[in-house]
Amino acid sequence: xxxxxxxxxxxLYKREIIYCQKFKNLMTSFLIVN
Length: 34
Prior knowledge:
Blueprint: H1 2-33
């Protein structure tokens, strides 16, 4: 049970990191365009 919760949390955390990286890439490209 605990292991499953940890795996689920790790998956959500990894997803958040990916979203942050995508957002940073969008912001940098937006700044470069302007």
